[in-house]
Amino acid sequence: MKALEGKNAIVTGASRGIGRAVAEELARHGANIAINYNQSQDSAEECCNVLRDLGVNAFVLQADVSRPEQARKFVEDSAREFGGRIDILVNNAGINRDRTLKRMTDQEWIDVIETDLNSVYYCTSAALPHMSQGGQIINMSSIIGRMGNVGQSNYAAAKAGMIGFSKSAAKELARQNITVNAVCPGFVETDMLEGVPDEPKAALLAAIPLGRFGQPEDVAALIRFLCTEGLWITGAAIDINGGQYM
Questions:
Q1: Are 4 and 26 in contact (CB under 8 A)?
Q2: pLDDT tens digits for range 18-30
């Protein structure tokens, strides 16, 4: 029997990048998966087909999780599809709108806070009534939430906020046997990193002691561990960055 056989998992922003790798990793270990996407429908459907080939129940639901009514409806619809029970929630949806403070617009600030931070609250609060048997909540923070970065004050604030949220939620929910952790990846080879010009990208790579960027699968393996073997871990902010931030 697979470690997550029969477990039901929601992964927001699962159509590509780290989210997709997480969905595939959990499915390989037996979990049924609700895939959320906002705009990338084709990628989400492709991911869903891969998961179904692994023998699990997988389905796709569109929602802009930065909007409370859409986020909560997505979670409720997922729970209904799962038969009422949610075991794992991975709050992975995120965007960046990089700009120095002098040039950042109010809307660029709001967009990032709403998508990267507020969605965590919306989805978590909606999932809790369906986690009566316990479960795992994992919030995708970032190395930027730990150390900050020029031109990313909005992103850093959102990702740091996720860490604080995770610690508080972990204390509240421990009595219900629900663990809550934040995972803080460093620079991973996703679409976001591909947009970085060659010279700054080389500087980022030089700052990583292990000498390589992460892969989405590196992060997915950590999240799977938290769902299978890390059940006495809660309230943690776990760094996975090749040694760039210690």
A1: yes
A2: 999 999 999 999 9
